[in-house]
Design goal:
The complex is a heterodimer of chains A (864) and B (382). Chain A is built from 29 helices and 24 strands. Chain A is an alpha+beta fold. Chain A has a six-stranded mixed β-sheet with strand order 2-3-1-4-5-6, with helices on both faces. In chain A, helix 15 packs antiparallel against helix 16. The longest helix of chain A is centred in the first third of the chain and has 26 residues. Chain B is 34% helix and 31% strand. Chain B contains twelve helices and 16 strands. Chain B has a seven-stranded antiparallel β-sheet with strand order 1-2-7-3-4-5-6, covered by helices on one side. In chain B, strands 10-9-8-11-12 form a five-stranded mixed β-sheet. Chain B has a four-stranded mixed β-sheet with strand order 13-16-14-15, with helices on both faces. Chain B is flat. Classes of the chains: A alpha+beta (864), B alpha+beta (382). Chains A and B meet through helix 23, strand 7, strand 18 and strand 19 of A and helix 3, helix 8 and helix 11 of B. Chain B: GO terms for molecular function: metal ion binding. Chain B: It comes from Rhynchophorus ferrugineus (Red palm weevil). Chain B: Its main location: cytoplasm. Chain B: InterPro entries: eFR1_2_sf (IPR042226), eRF1_2 (IPR005141), eRF1_3 (IPR005142), eRF1_Pelota-like_N (IPR005140), Pelota/DOM34_N (IPR038069), Pelota_N (IPR058547), Ribosomal_eL30-like_sf (IPR029064), TF_pelota (IPR004405).
């Protein structure tokens, strides 16, 4: 194989000549050219320069793993694991690794030797050890560092660029937008691998190439203005000169300066290729040059950089980007924002993880983060290999919940048009199916019993015209008959006779409505203490929460103080992964819209919610009245309220929620929360697609029983679908399985990528306000998704510091209130679960005792 | 249980003859008999005899066997005790040293010989033979889709039936399915009650659930009883009690037994007393962590300073095969008693006993705080 050419004897200086050129431009170009963009793109086929040809020809798309038998696959995986253990995760591109392993017939030792001896990987090995290999100094730039350094470098160039731009008014091909936004689901972790050597480029398959290209293009976008080639390259050279001397001195690296000279030479050479509409080249080279320059001052840092630093440069980039903006390139900033927002998956995951840390205080799992990112890379790898085409990740179109920034929709449409669609690729499929829909949002309504949740939502639905007038009239009459006229709106959601007679919600009621930008599914959770299990299963499916509190004097206090459900609900939804919350201060008409009362409640809640782990700007307070319908869908009309309230009405607040990113690329998981007989043959299960994609006709497994079944049909809220995606609450009709073999709390999953099954696992838990301490052997009720199982805390492994997550005490005798700990939990029978860092959705647990939630936690390890 | 004969010498060796009268007595017998003891009881054996002509006849003979126990089996559901061991007394049918299995039967006396009758065993005999009958209680712990029908006797809680069905949730246009599923579930629970609960014996039936399930069920049951003219149910209507529980799982029984209404009704039941003692332990642990300890090591250390006020110990610890360990526990119990402490032996068949068992099986509330114990860290015999 070309990859295994004699690398040791290679002349790097020569090899690097072409390196920059090829890596500088995107292979994607050939795959995603929309007609309107073609003119901007350099046609590689027409070029006779042989240097570019191999990049395409040698690309192999086939997933090597798939061709293996199961045993080989297992061997391969264990080999990879071992090697990763030895060399660290980011050391070697997975594909190379697989090749090597195949070559040495799964002999880990030989592979390791080969890797360590191979100069190509040498640097990675040494990088791992914290040494530097000078030969690669120029190339060891990894994106994190680039990114880190960007602000500094670019700031200086930025201004001159800006001037240039304004003079020339160059418009960046749209393609960039696409690529740059595409790169956003890639992690920067990958990038170092690509820089290993020139050798790589000949054998690298598409998988790596485009990535690199994207990085470069990303840089391009950063640089943004390629226009006057010579002038800018001068500028770069100047810039390089500025930075270089120190570095050379510091590193005593001669090759570096050589390289630099060469690069400049290279630049001038490039002019040959550079004519007419092929401006791209200039960009490419330029960005390479810049890239280099950036890397240089960083070289020293290469190994010391920690992933945490990611976030900072990106923020900087955002700011800088605004500076670079010129009116001529309007499109640019938008898409550019997207990658910044979401770019490194690691960073994204980190944000998620850190939001989780808020509730599960001191649960920082820094190590795991890299693992997460690694894993996500792997999944992406797989995806890339599986799919014949690449497409934009859903994240790209994304209103990322973490960033608070969104990509305008029209942009998405543009990029979407450029994309080839592939059945296999979940992202593409998702985009195709859902790209033009409003964002789907699942909102759980929570609060103390009798806070007016159902009434508030019933009224909201009525005012939105979702409820038939006739039906409403019927409800009014009937509720009057029962002497409960005030419950008429609640009847919209409370449907069973029992609920209506008692006037309380018992099970989660659901209803759909639309706001300006969202498709909202409402989950009306019961407030009564005894029905919290139902509420948990409802909230487990929700993206955002609406906390309803009763403003009436005394009522708020009973709901909020010890024993009230306001606290417990808020803590619960937070630990179930709901991070955005709207607080409706209901029944404010009973206190004649007093601002004082509103402020008092807001004040109390704010402190509490902050403790519970909600970010302050993720919580919105809305005064309203469910029964009179004030400030629900329209701005208030009540003068007393108008006097002091200038904010949004409830509907607008709901509309403002950010839809979370749906993890469609992950393996398919579906948690069942209802099993019932459908109208046709077979039976239905309802629940939520936690991750992945499900198509009609898919063969899936029901865990933990491991029964195989086939998807006969799919539906979302009565309308049938061919495919459902992560985040959807779907009804799946199954065939080939008995109804009694499926029960609530089971997990449907992908047979190739099944969920784990165990009756014992380790979890980090945060203990709430408990009256009785938790000891070893404490029996609890475990809530995991919609599953409710009795469990025993079988071991107290260690008590953790709440804020730092450090181990405070090993084997504590007991865990008191408000502490945090690692415990082992044994469930009475095996259940399907996942470790939190692999699958957030299935890695969360809640523990309850005697009707009180005592702890919430994350599964950290599954013990078999 | 009836004590028929007791013959123990001053060294503690001797035999006791007992006659089990109710299923629960089997449980006591199970706790009394340990490996190495010899048991003498009558049993039926099929004896085959060959005549001189070679034809064989078999006939059943009731014979008395004495075996040294090597293996003890207890079937909680049927309350059967099965002892396996070598025959040590030859008779005309059974050879010396042959392995035999004895099933202890109700109303048939058996003679138990121990090399050493320790205080715990003797106490157990006394307890078993205590004529003061405590109320037998039945409990139905339920939530939507799950019900446990249990019998609570003074030293045992037996789950007689567990009903676990899927009830479709309420959903638009499918409310009927939910209600149908619910009534089917209620019907199953009702059938289980009729089948497993002997209304002659049981003094009280607790129906516990979260929410309104118990009320709905109660209503349903008596509607059905009227419809089908079920005399048994209608006559015993007054025996039913509706109690709140947080879930339908078995361990919610603990909450039920703490309910004041239940306590007053079955005050002398061991179960309720155990639950209370365990609750005390937990409260102490929360309020004064230095006064509550669990685990053998800690408790023994506390005992050395005669600090134990209440010792909670699971009877499972006395059933262990390791004679030495058993002796250690017994001496612990004795020394606590000597020091004026209170010893509560939990039945591992009760909910509270199950929990104590999880909690290493031994726990103690102290008279005075011993913070130094807390620091002497980390044993955890897991």
């Amino acid at each position: 194989m070309a990859r295994h050419r004699d690398i040791r004897n290679m002349d790097y200086e020569d090899e690097y000549d072409g390196y920059d050129d090829v890596y500088g431009h995107s292979v994607d170009d050939d795959y995603y050219i929309s007609p309107s963009n073609r003119q901007f793109i350099y046609n590689r086929e027409s070029s006779r320069d042989s240097r570019f040809e191999h990049t395409e020809d040698n690309i192999e798309e086939a997933d090597e793993i798939d061709e293996l038998t199961d045993t080989d696959k297992a061997k391969l995986l264990s080999c990879i694991d071992q090697i990763n253990d030895n060399l660290g995760h980011t050391a070697i591109p997975r594909n190379d690794l697989i090749d090597l392993i195949m070559k040495f017939n799964f002999n880990t030792e030989l592979v390791l030797n080969a890797i360590l001896e191979d100069p190509k990987y040498n640097k990675l090995g040494t990088l791992q050890k914290g040494k530097e290999n000078r030969q690669y100094l120029g190339k060891t730039c990894s994106t994190p560092n680039v990114a880190l350094k960007w602000p500094k470098n670019v700031k200086s160039i930025g201004s001159s660029i800006q001037n240039n731009t304004q003079n020339n008014g160059f418009i960046i091909p749209k393609l960039f937008l696409q690529n740059s936004s595409e790169s956003n689901n890639r992690t920067s972790f990958n990038i170092p691998n690509i820089f290993t050597s020139k050798e790589e480029k000949t054998i690298n398959n598409k998988l790596i190439n485009p990535k690199l290209d994207r990085t470069h293009q990303y840089n391009n976008v950063l640089n943004s203005q390629p226009n006057e080639y010579s002038s800018l390259s001068d500028l770069v050279n100047n810039h390089l000169k500025n930075i270089l001397p120190n570095n050379i001195e510091k590193n005593k690296d001669n090759s570096l300066s050589k390289k630099l000279k060469e690069m400049r030479l290279d630049d001038s050479k490039q002019i040959n290729y550079f004519n007419g509409n092929t401006e791209k080249y200039s960009q490419v080279d330029l960005s390479n040059a810049l890239n280099m320059s950036n890397s240089l001052p960083n070289v020293k840092k290469t190994h010391t950089n920690k992933p945490e630093k990611f976030e900072i440069p990106f923020i900087d980039c955002e700011i800088r980007n605004d500076n670079v903006l010129t009116p001529e390139i309007e499109i640019l900033p938008c898409t550019f924002l997207a990658p910044i927002v979401i770019e490194p998956q690691a960073a994204r995951n980190k944000v998620v993880a850190s939001t989780a840390t808020n509730i599960v205080k001191g649960f920082n799992v820094p190590q795991k983060e890299t693992e997460i990112s690694q894993r996500s890379i792997d999944t992406i790898h797989k995806d890339r290999l599986d799919g014949t085409s690449r497409s934009q990740s859903p994240a790209a179109r994304g209103n990322s919940p973490n960033s608070g920034r969104g990509t305008p929709l029209n942009d998405v449409d543009e990029t979407k048009a450029n994309r080839k669609e592939s059945k296999v690729n979940p992202e593409a499929q998702y985009e195709k199916e859902r790209g033009d829909c409003k964002d789907q949002l699942y909102m759980v309504v929570i609060g103390h019993v009798d806070a007016g949740k159902s009434t508030l939502m019933g009224r909201l639905l009525c005012d939105l015209g979702q409820v038939n007038k006739k039906i409403m009239h019927k409800y009014e009459q009937e509720s009057k008959k029962l002497g409960k006229q005030s419950f008429m709106y609640a009847w919209v959601l409370d449907e069973t006779g029992e609920e209506r007679n008692r006037g309380i919600t018992m099970d989660v009621g659901r209803y759909q409505f639309e706001t300006k930008t969202k498709n909202v599914t409402l989950l009306d959770a019961p407030g009564h203490k005894d029905f919290i299990p139902n509420m948990i299963s409802g909230a487990g499916q929700a993206d955002v929460g609406l906390l309803v509190v009763d403003a009436t004097r005394g009522e708020f206090e009973t709901g909020f103080d010890l024993g009230g459900q306001t606290r417990e609900h808020a803590l619960l939804v937070r630990s179930l992964g709901v991070s955005q919350l709207a607080v409706a201060i209901n029944k404010l008409d009973t206190v004649s819209w007093s601002k004082q009362r509103f402020d008092e409640i807001v004040q109390k809640l704010k402190t509490f919610l902050k403790q519970a782990g909600f970010k302050e700007n993720d919580v919105t307070f809305v005064p309203c009245s469910g029964l009179t319908g004030q400030n629900l869908v329209k701005a208030p009309t009540e003068n007393e309220l108008l006097e002091w309230y200038k904010g949004h009405c409830l509907l607008e607040v709901i509309d403002k929620f950010r839809a979370p990113i749906r993890p469609v690329v992950k393996p398919f998981r579906f948690s069942i929360n209802d099993v019932f007989k459908g109208t046709g043959s077979g039976f239905c299960v309802a629940g939520r697609v936690e991750t992945g994609v499900l198509n009609v006709g898919d063969k899936i497994l029901v865990y933990p029983n491991k029964d195989q079944t086939v998807v006969k049909s799919l539906a979302i809220e009565e309308s049938s679908r061919v495919v459902v995606f992560a985040g959807d609450q779907a009804i799946v009709t199954l065939s080939g399985i008995e109804m009694q073999n499926v029960s609530i709390g089971n997990i449907l999953c992908d047979p190739l990528n099944p969920v784990q099954v165990s009756n014992k696992f380790e979890a980090r838990i945060v203990i709430f306000n408990v009256t009785v301490p938790i000891t070893k052997g404490y029996s609890v009720v475990l809530h995991h998704q919609s599953l409710v199982e009795p469990a025993v805390i079988s071991k107290l492994t260690s008590q953790l510091n709440k804020s730092t997550g450090e181990v405070q005490k090993k084997h504590p005798r007991f865990l008191g209130k408000n502490s945090s700990a690692i415990v082992e939990i044994t469930v009475s029978k095996p259940i399907a679960l996942e470790v939190y860092c692999e699958c957030k959705e299935l890695g969360r647990i809640t523990l309850r005792v005697a009707g009180v939630t005592i702890a919430a936690g994350l599964i950290t390890r599954i013990i078999n | 249980m009836k004590l028929i004969q007791k013959d123990i010498d001053k060294w503690g060796e001797g035999n006791i003859t007992l006659m089990p009268e109710e299923p629960e007595d089997m449980w006591h017998a199970y706790n009394l008999i340990s490996e190495g003891d010899s048991v003498r009881s009558s049993t039926i054996r099929k004896v085959q005899s060959e005549s001189s002509t070679g034809s064989s006849t078999s006939n059943r003979v009731r014979t008395t066997l004495t075996i040294t126990v090597e293996n003890i089996d207890f079937d909680t559901q049927a309350c059967m005790l099965r002892l396996k061991g070598r025959n040590i007394e030859e008779n005309q049918y059974v050879k010396m040293g042959a392995y035999h299995t004895l099933d202890l039967e109700l109303n048939r006396k058996f003679c138990l010989r121990k090399h050493e009758w320790d205080s715990v065993s003797i106490e157990r005999v006394e307890l078993a033979c205590d004529p003061a009958k405590s109320a037998d209680v039945a409990a139905v712990i339920m939530q939507e889709g799950l019900a446990n029908v249990c019998l609570i006797t003074s030293s045992m809680t037996i789950v007689r039936a567990k009903i676990d069905v899927n009830i479709p949730r309420k959903r638009k246009g499918f409310v009927q399915q939910h209600e149908k599923g619910l009534s089917k579930f209620y019907d199953q629970v009702m059938q289980a009650i009729l089948r497993h609960i002997d209304f002659e014996v049981v003094k009280c039936i607790l129906i516990a659930s979260p929410g309104f399930v118990r009320d709905q069920f109660y209503e349903y049951m008596f509607q059905m009883a009227v419809k089908t003219d079920n005399k048994v149910l209608l006559d015993n209507k007054s025996k039913f009690m509706l109690i709140h529980a947080s879930s339908g799982f078995k361990h919610s029984l603990r909450e039920v037994l703490q309910d004041p209404a239940v306590i007053s009704k079955m005050s002398d039941t061991k179960a309720a007393g155990e639950v209370k003692a365990l609750e005390n332990f937990y409260t102490t642990l929360q309020c004064e962590p230095a006064k509550a300890f669990y685990g053998k090591k800690h408790v023994e250390a506390a005992n050395e300073s005669q600090a134990i006020e209440t010792l909670l110990i699971s009877d499972k610890l006395f059933r262990c095969n390791d004679v030495k360990l058993r002796k250690e526990y017994i001496s612990l119990v004795d020394s606590v008693r000597e020091a004026g402490g209170d010893v509560k032996i939990f039945s591992s068949m009760h909910i509270s006993g199950e929990q104590l068992e999880q909690l290493t099986g031994i726990a103690a509330i102290l008279r005075f705080p011993m913070p130094e114990l807390e620091d002497s860290d980390d044993e955890e015999e897991s």
